[in-house]
Amino acid sequence: MLSRIDLRGAALSDLDARGLRATLPRAEFDVEAALDALRPICEHVEHGGEQALLELGEKFDGVRPPSLRVPQEVLDAALADLDPAVRAALEESIRRARLVHSDQRRQTVTTQVAPGGSVTEKWIPVDRVGLYVPGGKAVYPSSVVMNVVPAQLAEVGSIAVASPPQRDNGGYPHPTILAACALLGVDEVYAAGGAQAVAMFAYGARDADGATVCEPATLVTGPGNIYVAAAKRLLKGLIGIDAEAGPTEIAILADGTADPELVAADLISQAEHDELAASVLVTDSTELADAVDVALARRAAATKHHERVDVALRGRQSGTVLVDDVDAGLRVVDAYAAEHLEIQTADAAAVAARVRNAGAIFVGSFAPVSLGDYAAGSNHVLPTGGCACHSSGLSVQSFLRGVHIVDYSRDALAEVADTVVTLANSEDLPAHGEAVTARFEGDR
Ligand SMILES: NC(=O)c1ccc[n+]([C@@H]2O[C@H](COP(=O)([O-])OP(=O)(O)OC[C@H]3O[C@@H](n4cnc5c(N)ncnc54)[C@H](O)[C@@H]3O)[C@@H](O)[C@H]2O)c1
Ligand SMILES: N[C@H](CO)Cc1c[nH]c[nH+]1
Ligand SMILES: [Zn+2]
């Protein structure tokens, strides 16, 4: 089922890093390609406010929401009607996420640079965040947890959620998404999806009379499809964003010790998100690759979303990469920089410790990606499209800014004045030095 790329022997050693990246499977319709489609959507929201957002709901989600903001009674009813088993599972997911994310909180640190001279690094949360929760082909209450838990632990003062309107829920987001918001104490929820939701948070939205319906946010986080990721790229600067967390990717580095049934199950688990999802196997075992193909064909045909899975597995973003050994495999997975990387090899922990580029790493046979999706305690909002070589998954840190507070006494400044003047003159910016010496003019 998976196409094959053979990188054994010179095929790998002859490639430099750029050439290797270009050889690996990636979708043709990427974030850059989606930008043109959504520029007019974002402009429509900027100028058309609430009315534009309601229209775009009708156009892209097949239903015009009764109101952009979800009324409190609708949130309360969703929580009251939530299946107790789903509520218990969400509560356990929240508990584990809070455990892990609590440990990410940064402390204010003061460094005494010289007598009387200190720099304090203080972590200040953004004022207001817009959290995106996907809801197109599937709905994602788990992404409410993954967005809201770190934002709350970072003590962001104002938290709003947007998710696409659902035809089956009278034009409001899916009831389990609303219930998850209510469970976490989030009461500002909007029925808006895709690029238009990101634009709503960037520009804010007013009604036809000019009254504010949604205040602009300073930061927008959360996962979504290619249009959501592209909107974040387009509006970055006006708003802060987390990493581009677009269509899901799984890469599995496996050797002959791996169980082909488990490898196939995990590749399919992420392929069911989206036709653009990527499932990549990197292995030094042709026997394993063959057995995975057989298992994929059987399992893919039997799974609920088999049509989507089939398209994703056959797409050019998915494939098997054959390598000489695990060392060569590590070079390939580092170049690919997967959102999720599973290590299913002998001595998996030691191999995992050598990985440099991945959004999250899952070690051995008992840590499938779907554990991380729901209940490992780790965050599932992770960088895609190779962004894992420079960006991290969502964390408490994503919602904080580190601000340096510089506090120097007269004596401490006098002590370093010559250093500043010398460096300022070396850059031909003498007024910088004069701003320091002006403070000591009376001393001469
Ligand atoms: N990287 C991560 O951390 C992560 C986590 C969870 C999910 N995901 C990904 O999130 C995505 C969820 O996608 P989804 O589609 O189910 O929900 P979604 O909410 O991301 O997207 C639905 C929205 O897409 C917009 N849209 C659809 N077709 C469009 C078009 N032709 N032009 C413009 N806009 C269009 C619509 O406005 C719709 O509301 C999947 O790709 C999944 O893999 C990623
Ligand atoms: N695998 C997705 C991207 O990390 C997250 C998710 C949510 N629900 C199921 N899966
Ligand atoms: Zn998933």
UniProtKB/TrEMBL annotation:
Pfam family, one: Histidinol_dh
List of residues binding Zn(2+): 270, 273, 373, 432
Cofactor stoichiometry and binding remark: Binds 1 zinc ion per subunit.
Annotated Gene Ontology cellular component terms: cytosol
Zinc found in the keyword field: yes
Entry keyword annotation includes Amino-acid biosynthesis: yes
EC number(s) reported in the record: 1.1.1.23
Protein residues bound to NAD(+): 132, 196, 225
Top EC class for this record: oxidoreductase
UniProt keywords, alphabetically: Amino-acid biosynthesis, Histidine biosynthesis, Metal-binding, NAD, Oxidoreductase, Zinc
Active site per database record: 339 (proton acceptor), 340 (proton acceptor)
GO biological processes: L-histidine biosynthetic process
Record field: catalytic activity: L-histidinol + 2 NAD(+) + H2O = L-histidine + 2 NADH + 3 H(+)
Highest taxon listed in the record's lineage: Bacteria
Pathway listed: Amino-acid biosynthesis; L-histidine biosynthesis; L-histidine from 5-phospho-alpha-D-ribose 1-diphosphate: step 9/9
Cofactor(s) required, per the database record: Zn(2+)
Residues annotated to bind substrate: 248, 270, 273, 340, 373, 427, 432
GO-annotated molecular function: histidinol dehydrogenase activity; NAD binding; zinc ion binding
Family label: Belongs to the histidinol dehydrogenase family.
Known role: Catalyzes the sequential NAD-dependent oxidations of L-histidinol to L-histidinaldehyde and then to L-histidine.
Protein name: Histidinol dehydrogenase
Designated gene of the protein: hisD
